[in-house]
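Structure ticket #2291
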Amino acid sequence: MTIIRALHKIENEDQAALAQVTLAETGDAFSVEPHETILAAALNAGVDLAHDCKTGFCGSCRIRLLDGEVVYDEEPLGLSEEERGCGFALACQARARMNLKISAELMPTDRVEPVEILSEVISVTQVCDDIIRLRLRPEGEMPAFQPGQYINVVTESGATRSFSIASSPSEAEIDLHIRVIPGGMYTDGVLKGLIPGAKVHLHGPHGLFCLHAEDFRPLLLVATGTGIAPLRAMLAALKEDRDGPPVALYWGMREERELYLAEEIAALGAELEDFSFVPVLSRAPEGVHRRGYVQDAVLADLPDLSEHAIYLCGSPEMIAEARGRFLEAGASVNHIYADSFHFAHNL
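Resolution: structure written out below.
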């Protein structure tokens, strides 16, 4: 029997025994200290479990508990109640309270290793009140990446800021959609001072969120805010395949003036065989576009999601709710991919 518990304080933790974690797929095992997360222990032991953000938001490190019990200091947003009920846990946050047997994915062996990239600013455009579109041209060849991945901007101090790539690998530029955080060192400072021709240092690509062409399922793409950026990259890549699957894209914003990419999305979709685009506005009056929350609009239109591959990108709150409700609507837990945009106040 699998048990998952969340505790804000673990009593007598220093008396807990060392636990062993065994991978069902390979039989490999590694030890976990009471204070360690499963992911940290695995990486320390040379077991490269799939992972990305390490903060409990993206869900990339999801494992399935076949035997044993784990605890969390706080419930992670990247895991729905339905997934917990099916025995899933997030390795980056979970700690073992006893020996575990788990089913888990490893990092892809064919992933492209991140590289240093020097780029030149093509344009810096304020596309709506708090979003800037930054276009960059890499010096030399375009770096290899998968549609949906992100890249780090490296500042002069060596600090990094992560942004999803909105362009496809064939577009010969790196397109970033950046929400300005008031007072943010990069987004409200450095970024606004960039001019065409300026040099920007990048490092990437990063991330496991990417298009899974092998799924052979209709695609449901759901975004809030600048979460539209990696989905735009996917659309740009999909238009190159005339035999691609049906695609439905739902984009949640607050007001119509914030739909900065609507015309471009419609133009990309027009090159697909079967495409629908539904903007959903949470604060706008009744009018041209749907009103409400994006996950509600999806379920109103698609009450049965059992055949879809689903890509969620945007706010952690939207992703957490959508993931749970979409599973209730029949979505396959193995075909939901998420990229959670967690904004730090010092960005």
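Closing remark: The chain has three domains: 2-104, 115-206, 213-340.
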